[in-house]
TrEMBL record:
Keyword Transcription regulation: no
Organism, scientific name: Micromonospora chaiyaphumensis
A Pfam family recorded for this sequence: Acyl-CoA_dh_1
Top-level taxon of the source organism: Bacteria
Protein name, entry field: Butyryl-CoA dehydrogenase
Upper classification of the organism: Bacteria, Bacillati, Actinomycetota, Actinomycetes, Micromonosporales
Residue ranges occupied by any Acyl-CoA dehydrogenase/oxidase N-terminal domain in the UniProt entry: 6-118
Length: 382
């Protein structure tokens, strides 16, 4: 058992860390405040190859693996989560369904620009009336001749409305199975298709420099060839995508938790109270020690889940554990980092305020903490 990174992995981590500190950190506060999408940062991340990390070179990828993506996400989120979630959603939710389930034609048409970061794709699963219970999907797609006609709406879809969004994959009911249950399928809807409307961006508590919209489909027609993979495989497809995505979200949460440690150490050494730096008080040292312990153990949990996935072993339970633990400790660390910063921690100009606002969604997105517990309990035979 060896948890040390290879030279190549270490080099990737270093280069993303430098990029986060030198390029993301100086520019992101303004985007966060103004709720604007950081196109220039995303363009540079594309040039670095981050959007192609876990994909084969024959499709325009970097020939790395999912763990490489996780390392990059951790380093980005250590500085900023809006940029990190944009990459996470673009790769593991946007491009991955086409990479895993698409036809050769679909891959050739869509992947090159998605993997270079010149285009983004959204993953349209959640609906206004149903999130955790994805089987409750109401959006319908009916095959009329050689076209799917889609009607319904989707809620909270990341990367669905940027200037460079090229498509959204939409989960829809396409029929009824012999046992009476819904037949779910996934359909590719290109941006700009008539009948596909993107609502203005939500006003969010956190991740304010990321792109999130409600989408509506009103007699939206796309070619029959836009079906992703087999008809009726929609449920299995999104379960696989979400299982993997949980490891990536865990890595992002670890990054945020570690960023809280970084900022807290810096502040505790500078801030004076009662004649000495607050970092000299054991109460503050213990908070920081606990924060480091939590970030470290959550990192081991996502390393383990990623290692199992890459080895082709079952990883559903470990991915849910990693996501549940990492998101919980990210919220803990953000709260404690804010506490260590006192009143300044409540001021938006301090990174810890951003960490605090960005942490809560980690316990909700890509499966709530309750859903992770359901997955773990089910895997334990309950
Ligand atoms: C910023 C942001 C970005 C997002 N990006 C995307 C995206 O790109 N694509 C996408 O498809 N979705 C996206 N989502 C949606 C996200 O995945 C859902 O919000 C999440 O899955 C929860 O669904 P819900 O909001 O409908 O909550 P609900 O499912 O309504 O849950 C409400 C509460 O009830 C609890 N609950 C539900 N069922 C049970 C049960 N059986 N037992 C115990 N408790 C239960 C939940 O845990 C939660 O606490 C995004 C959300 C946000 C906020």
């Amino acid at each position: 058992m060896d948890f040390r990174l290879s030279e190549e992995q270490e080099a990737l981590r270093e280069s993303v860390r430098d990029f986060a500190r030198e390029v993301v950190a100086p520019a992101i506060a303004e985007h966060y405040e103004q709720h604007t999408f950081p196109y220039e940062i995303i363009r540079q991340m594309g040039k670095m190859g981050l959007f192609g990390l876990p994909f084969a070179e024959e499709h325009g990828g970097m020939g790395g693996d999912y763990f490489a993506l996780c390392l990059a996400l951790e380093e980005l989120a250590r500085v900023d989560s809006s940029v990190a979630i944009t990459l996470e959603a673009a790769v593991s939710l946007g491009a991955m369904p086409i990479y895993r389930f698409g036809t050769d034609e679909q891959k050739a048409r869509w992947l090159p620009k998605l993997l270079s970061g010149e285009a983004l794709a959204g993953f349209g699963l959640t609906e206004p009336g149903t999130g955790s219970d994805a089987g409750g999907t109401q959006t319908r797609a009916v095959l009329e001749g050689d076209e799917w006609v889609i009607n319904g709406s989707k809620a909270f879809i990341t990367n669905s409305g940027t200037d460079i969004t090229s498509l959204v994959t939409v989960t829809a009911v396409t029929g009824t199975r012999p046992d009476g249950s819904k037949e779910l399928s996934t359909i590719i809807v290109p941006s700009g298709t008539p009948g596909f409307t993107v609502a203005p961006g939500y006003s969010k508590v956190g991740w304010t420099a990321s792109d999130t919209h409600e989408l509506t489909f009103d007699d939206c027609r796309v070619p029959a060839a836009n079906l992703l993979g087999e008809r009726g495989r929609g449920f299995a497809q999104f379960l696989r995508i979400l299982d993997e995505g949980r490891i990536a979200i865990a890595a992002l949460a670890v990054g945020l938790a570690q960023g809280c440690v970084d900022e807290s150490i810096k502040y505790a050494k500078e801030r004076q109270a009662f004649g000495q730096p607050i970092g000299a008080y054991q109460a503050i040292q213990f908070k920081i020690a606990d924060m480091e312990m939590k970030a470290h153990t959550a990192r081991l949990a996502y390393y383990d889940a990623a290692a199992r996935m890459l080895a082709g072993e079952p990883f559903k339970r470990q991915a849910a554990i990693a996501k549940l633990h990492a998101s919980t400790i990210a919220v803990d660390n953000a709260r404690e980092a804010t506490q260590i910063h006192g009143g300044y921690g409540f001021m938006n100009e301090y990174p810890v305020a951003r960490f605090w606002r960005d942490s809560k969604i980690l316990e909700i997105g890509e499966g709530t903490s309750e859903v992770q517990r359901m997955v773990i309990a089910r895997d334990l035979g309950m």
